[in-house]
Specification:
It is a single chain. With 342 residues, this protein is of the alpha+beta class. It folds into three domains: 121 residues, Immunoglobulin-like, CATH 2.60.40; 56 residues; 133 residues, Jelly Rolls (Sandwich). The protein is 27% helix and 35% strand. The strands form four sheets. Strands 10, 12, 13, 15, 16 and 18 form a six-stranded antiparallel beta sheet that branches. The chain has a five-stranded antiparallel beta sheet with strand order 11-9-19-14-17, with no helix packed on it. A four-stranded antiparallel beta sheet has the order 1-2-6-5, with helices on one face. Helix 1 packs across helix 2. The chain binds 2-acetamido-2-deoxy-beta-D-glucopyranose (6 copies). Its main location: secreted. Keywords: Coiled coil, Secreted, Signal. It holds the Pfam family C1q.
Length: 342
């Protein structure tokens, strides 16, 4: 109690000398700021300002505010000579009073010219709420404009991205088509260059007993197959069948035991004679032989064989042979059979 009284006394003494210090105009005023503010958390508020004070630094007291609901709010917010009170929605309408606490030294100064340590302002709640709403709406409109701009930009970038993706898709498809067409060109070349698949060669000797021709125009069938790479010579038919288009070489050798018989024979492709040969035996020499041979360009699956052309001749079985081989295959193309038989 005594300390409190001492403080009060000190204050009175100080007030006598420095009373022009705390308030610039000798009296307090409350004004309502005409701007609405938004804090960092997005809350909107109106500001009541109580002043003007001349303190450069923060005053030695906190401001007491009496709000319409009769509550007392202690506020320490101070800026540019004013204590401020923030009113946020819903704003309470009525009488707001700011008051310098009675135990403050400064209160004594202001008491000198009547009760100047407090000031009031009537806040119209409808007007205040409208101000807040208008400010919020203005901010929303601004946000809306920004969002609209961003939306336009996004739509434009989406459109250009869509175009880009479509173009990319088109180009990828074109590349794939061109690649697959190149592959279809390259694949047969790989097969062509794979000589493993193109070993076509055969050699057969000896006539089959049952087919040894005694009458003419009979296909000679050889029984003793020594080589048959590619398996194109068939002993039961006597045919060599081409596995793919290309250029082939063939040779046939045979003759007759009987010196009085001319052994005529031919190399035939699909009914067409490609080489003809015969033994002409003027003397009395047994077992004369002759050879017929040829190089032909053949298609796929064509038959090549030896045909006996003379009648009633016993052909010389041991001296009979039939050979052939592929010189080189045709270059593959889009209409060639693929894959080629091995
Ligand atoms: C507002 O309240 C203060 C303090 O209670 C009082 O002095 C003042 O007369 C009131 N003003 C109005 C307009 O009601
Ligand atoms: C982006 O563009 C595509 C193609 O025009 C459309 O289908 C899609 O809806 C758009 N997306 C947006 C978010 O606008
Ligand atoms: C080469 O041809 C042989 C016989 O047709 C086949 O087995 C082999 O896979 C081929 N190699 C390549 C690399 O195509
Ligand atoms: C084929 O004929 C020869 C000579 O005439 C004979 O020795 C051989 O036994 C015959 N072979 C067959 C399977 O008839
Ligand atoms: C040989 O030809 C006969 C008669 O056409 C046929 O039945 C047989 O399958 C052929 N053999 C081969 C290995 O192609
Ligand atoms: C392609 O091959 C086929 C069959 O071998 C042949 O008939 C045709 O003429 C060839 N085409 C070209 C352009 O070489």
């Amino acid at each position: 109690m005594t300390t409190s009284l001492t403080v009060q006394l000190l204050c009175l003494i100080l007030a006598a000398f420095f009373c022009d210090l705390p308030a610039t105009h000798g009296a307090l005023h409350v004004i309502q700021s005409d701007v609405v503010m938004q804090d960092q958390d997005g809350h909107w508020s109106l500001e009541l300002r109580c002043g003007n004070f001349a303190f450069l630094d923060y005053p030695a007291f906190d401001m007491e505010w009496q709000v319409p609901s009769e509550r007392t709010v202690i506020e320490s917010r101070y800026k540019n000579g004013h204590f401020t009170l923030r009113l946020s929605a819903p704003v309470e309408g009525g009488n707001y009073t700011c008051r310098i606490p009675t135990n403050s030294c400064d209160a004594h100064c202001l008491q000198e010219n009547g009760d100047l340590r407090q000031a009031s302002l009537h806040v119209d709640d409808v007007e205040a709420r409208l101000m807040l709403l208008e400010a919020q709406q203005a901010a929303l409109e601004q946000d809306h404009d920004v969002i609209k701009d961003e939306h336009t930009q996004l739509r434009e970038s989406n459109a250009s991205l869509t175009t880009y993706v479509l173009d990319l898709e088109k180009r990828t498809k074109a590349t794939l088509v061109s690649l697959s067409s190149r592959v279809s060109v390259i694949e047969p070349v790989i097969v062509l260059n794979n000589l493993t698949g193109h070993h076509i060669a055969f050699h057969a000797t000896h006539l089959k007993n049952d087919t040894t021709p005694h009458s003419g125009h009979i296909t000679m069938k050889l029984s003793n197959v020594l080589t048959n790479q590619g398996g194109c010579y068939n002993t039961s038919t006597g045919f060599f069948m081409t596995p793919f288009p290309g250029t082939y070489f063939f040779a046939a050798t045979t003759g007759s035991y009987d010196p009085n018989r001319n052994a005529d024979f031919a190399l035939i492709v699909e009914g067409i004679i490609i080489a003809y040969s015969t033994t002409r035996n003027p003397g009395n020499v047994e077992g004369q032989v002759a050879t017929a041979h040829g190089i032909v360009h053949l298609k796929h699956s064509q038959k090549v064989f030896i045909r006996a052309m003379s009648q009633n001749v016993d052909f010389f079985s041991e001296a009979t042979s039939f050979s052939g081989f592929l010189l080189y295959p045709d270059p593959p193309n889009s209409t060639a059979i693929f894959p080629w038989p091995g």
